[in-house]
Amino acid sequence: MTVTIYTQSSCSSSRKAIKWLKENNIAYSEKRITSQPLTLAEFKNILRMTEDGTDEIIATNSNDFKNLNVDIDQLSIQDLYNLIQQHPRMLRSPILLDEKRIQVGYNEMDIRRFIPRKVRAYELNAMQKLATQG
């Protein structure tokens, strides 16, 4: 299972997430949305995976978003997509996803969800053994 990570240039959270994926030997493909705009299918897939829709992926505190002075809740999916094409920095980054999971932003604990379940179970078992031996 490959993780797709959507990043932005000069984003420290994106760099941290990529470093973590490499350190944990997790296969990933990176797409830098500032130079390779999202396709409509990618955008719809990201939205489909969110729990809170646009609230989860739009960086409302970004200058790009503030300068637009637009109510995104009033936009159609196509209009929002067109706006993001023109202003990709209004998206939060990084956005990581695979077939089952999505994570927006970098969080050291939450990103562990991308470690395969068998590996997580093995690590938990090893920690429990250590705890009972101590």
UniProtKB/TrEMBL annotation:
It comes from the Bacteria. Pfam families: ArsC (PF03960). InterPro entries: Arsenate_reductase-like, Thioredoxin-like_sf, Tscrpt_reg_Spx/MgsR. Belongs to the ArsC family. NCBIfam families: arsC_related, PRK01655.1. This is Spx/MgsR family RNA polymerase-binding regulatory protein.
